[in-house]
Amino acid sequence: MTTLSQTKELFRRADAVCFDVDSTVIKEEGIDELAKFCGVGDAVTEMTRKAMGGSMTFKRALTERLSIIRCSREQVNKLITDHPPQLTPGIRELVDRLHERNIKVFLISGGFRCIVEHVATQLNIPLHHVYANRLKFYFNGEYAGFDESQPTAESGGKGKVISMLKEQHGFKTVVMVGDGATDLEACPPASAFIGFGGNVVRPQVKERCSWYVTSFGELLKELEKI
């Protein structure tokens, strides 16, 4: 594991920074909000907790949660319109500063592309820099499952995306920022991991990373040192 000073140095000279979305870039867990909206909030929140804690495989947790929710396309669209994802304070400024420094920004999420694209647009992140799961619907709009071929549908999927980005773009230094177990396990191949506890603190993540922050202001401050 990199030391605190090494992690800060890698962040300052990163070629790319990859952010988790749920409970990191946005305040909520998208799947929990979708479940609440569809009237099955409690059952799904408990399963999300288990998934984030690493006590069941991500794919199994995703499959089981979605089989409870069974959301229609109309419900997903209405959720985004009526309850748009709430950006975490400071993320807009941080992404703007990274872009100014010509550091590429990616969103890598175990959540749903339709929600994550909405977030990317608010942050001026190109949609081809978004990696997330795709919901599938029948022609009549009813839930038909999710695209299991996406790397983000698997445990270890975020690491696969980072390996792919390094290969495709020739990035030497890629930093992952996130709140959960699936973010922590993306390092390696990520050069460094920064734990984020501004929305929810997950003890097993906090204990295992050398740099843990509770606000994006701390990252912004680090970039000012260059």
UniProtKB/TrEMBL annotation:
GO terms for biological process: L-serine biosynthetic process. The active site is at 20 (nucleophile), 22 (proton donor). Catalyzes the last irreversible step in the biosynthesis of L-serine from carbohydrates, the dephosphorylation of O-phospho-L-serine to L-serine. L-serine can then be used in protein synthesis, to produce other amino acids, in nucleotide metabolism or in glutathione synthesis, or can be racemized to D-serine, a neuromodulator. May also act on O-phospho-D-serine. GO terms for cellular component: cytoplasm. InterPro entries: HAD-like_SerB (IPR050582), HAD-like_sf (IPR036412), HAD_sf (IPR023214), PSP (IPR004469). Belongs to the HAD-like hydrolase superfamily. SerB family. Gene3D superfamilies: HAD superfamily/HAD-like, Phosphoserine phosphatase, domain 2. Keywords: Amino-acid biosynthesis, Hydrolase, Magnesium, Metal-binding, Serine biosynthesis. Its cofactor is Mg(2+). It catalyses: O-phospho-D-serine + H2O = D-serine + phosphate; O-phospho-L-serine + H2O = L-serine + phosphate. This is Phosphoserine phosphatase. Pfam families: Hydrolase. GO terms for molecular function: L-phosphoserine phosphatase activity; magnesium ion binding. Coiled coil: none annotated. The keyword Metal-binding applies. Its EC number is 3.1.3.3. The gene is psph. PANTHER family: PHOSPHOSERINE PHOSPHATASE. Pathway: Amino-acid biosynthesis; L-serine biosynthesis; L-serine from 3-phospho-D-glycerate: step 3/3.
